[in-house]
Amino acid sequence: MPESVIDGHASRLNALREQLKKDGFDGFVIPRTDEHQGEYVPPQAQRLAWLSGFTGSAGLAVTLLDRAAIFVDGRYTIQVRQEVVEDLFAYKHLIDEPAHEWLSENVKAGMRIAYDPWLQSENQINILRKGVEKAGGELVAVESNPADAVWRDQPARPCTKSMPYDLKYAGKSSREKREEIGKLLDASDADCAVLSLPDSVAWLLNVRGEDVDHTPLVLSFAVVHADGSVQWFVDGGKVTSETLSALDNQVEVAEPDALESRLIAFAQKGKSVLVDPATCPERITSLLEKNGAKLVRAMDPVMKPKARKNDTELNGIRAAHIRDGAAMVQFLKWVTENAIERAGTDNPVTEMEAADKLRSFREDVPMFKDLSFDTISGAGPNGAMCHYKVSNESSISLNMNEIFLIDSGGQFLDGTTDITRTIIIGSPTEEMKDRFTRVLMGHISLAMAKFPKGTNGMQLDSLARRPLWDAGLDFDHGTGHGVGCFLGVHEGPQRIAKASSPVALEPGMFLSNEPGYYKAGEYGIRIENLIIVRDAGKMIGLDIPLYDFETVTLCPIDLRLVEPSIMSASEIKWLNDYHAWVREELTPLLDAEHQAWLQAATKSI
C-alpha cells in the first residue's frame, strides 16, 4: 500500500478524533450505510471507505480516541487486509467478533460513544448499546455526523431523474400494489407504515431512478396508509413530469425535509405506525415513539409482496436470462480462446480486460440498462476473494493452468441477472477438479431440492454444503440471496444461508444458488445460477403444498473442471439435462461459430 495512502487515512482518522474531542465524545460508530440501509450507497455516504479505505459492500468501524477496529464478514477477510492499514484499524470478523463485544471490552466507564441515528436501525443500535453499557459507557445519538464535519471534499447528494416503470414490465399497477399493502396494514392494526428502503418505494410506486450505481433506485422515503394513499418524500428535482403523470392523486409528493414534521404530526394524532426495526433508521423510530405514536414493529410490509414475483415479472426474468445467456456464451468463448492464445506474451488477457469485454457483449443485448453490480473478475489468487473488486491497479493477467472466476450480471428492463462461472485456463490439477466438482454437486443438490410449504432457506442451506463438508471443506458466505426485478441484485427477505432465516420460501420468490470454495492465495471457485421457487404439487399422503426450484440462468458449466467419477448418476443426469436445455434455448441467438463452441461446451458426459 503506497505511503501516501497510509498517511491519508491516518490523517483522516486523526481529524475525526479531534472532532470527537471537540464534540465531547470518546468514540464513534461508522457503518457502511446511508439513511436507507442500502448495500449500494452514493459517494456522499461512503464514509467508511473515506475513513478506512475499505470498499466492500458490508462492514462497520468503531473509532475510539486511542484505538479503532473494522468489522467485516467472511467475504472480505482477505480484501480488508489489502485495503485497510492494520496499524490504524484492528481486523475483526463481523459475525464471530461483533462490534458490541469489542465495545464491551474496550470502552471504559463514563465514556460517551456517538452514533448517527440515521445510519443504523433500532435493532442495530440496541445491540451496540448493550455492549457500551456493559462497559459502563453511554451510547449517544448525534444531530450531525462528525465524519461529515471533517470530510472536506465530501461529494454532494445524488439528484438524478426518475422514470416510471412501465406496466408491461411491472405486471401490477401502483394502485393495485398500494391496495394490497393497505390490506396488510389493516391486518396489522396499523394506520400507516414508514418505507425507508428505496427498493420498497420503487416497487410500490412503479418508479425507477439512477441515484446509485447499478441499482435503478430513487433515494427517498415514503409513508403508505391503510387506505392506499402515499406521501412520497423525495427531492423535487428527481421527479420528472413523466413520473408525475404516471402517479395518481393518491400519491402526494413532498420534499425530504418535510418527513420529520409529518411523522411528528402522525404521532401526535395517536396514529398507529408500522416501522421495521431491522431496516428503518433509529432516528425515525425514536422520533415517532417520543411524540406519542403507537408503534407496530414488524417487517417492512412491501418486502414479501415484492419478493413474490408476478407472472409478468417472471416471464420477463426468463426472457432476460435467455438474452444474457447468449452474451455469456460469446464472452466465455472469447476469454477461453484469448487467454490461452495470449498467455506468456507481452499482451496477456487481464482481469480488467475480461470485465470490460463482458460488459461490451452485454451492452449489445436488447433492453440492457446497466451492470447489476461491479463485475468480480478474479484470476488465480484474486478469485479467492469472494467479492474482489478489480481495478487498473489490482488487475493481473489470466495465466495458463490457473482458475478464473467471473461473477457478473446485468440490469435489463424486464429483469435482473446475476451469474458466476469458474473456468480453467489450460489444464486443471486433480485438486481443482475435486473442489470444483464438489461445489457443482452442492449446486445441483439445491437445484433439485423439493420441500414443503413453510421451509426457510436456513433449512436448505446444508444441501449445498454437504459435498464440501464430506471432504472437510466449506465456504464463508451465504448460499443464496434474493434478487429483484429490475431492482437490487441483492433483495430480502428471502435467503439461503447458515444464519437464521425465518422467512419461508414461497412461489415466485427469486434467489441465487451459489456455493463455492476458496483457497487463499491460489484460487476461488463459485457456480451461481438464479432460481425461482415454484409449486410442485402436494406432498404424498398429506395435504401440504410441495415446492421446488426452477433454474433460469442459461450458461455452460466448464466440463474440463468436472470429475464425473465422484458424481452420482442423478447428478450427471441433471448436468446433461441442464446443458441440453442451454443448447436448445441459446442456439437460435448465436451465429454458427458460437453455436459450434456451445455444442462442444455442453456435450453430454
UniProtKB/TrEMBL annotation:
Residues 12-140 form the Creatinase N-terminal domain. InterPro entries: Creatin/AminoP/Spt16_N, Creatinase/aminopeptidase-like, Creatinase_N, Pept_M24, Pept_M24B, Peptidase_M24_C, X-Pro_aminopeptidase_P. Keywords: Aminopeptidase, Hydrolase, Metal-binding, Protease. It comes from Kiloniella antarctica. The keyword Acyltransferase does not apply. It holds the Pfam family Creatinase_N. Its EC number is 3.4.11.-. One of its GO terms (molecular function) is aminopeptidase activity. This is Aminopeptidase P family protein. Residues 316-534 form the Peptidase M24 domain.
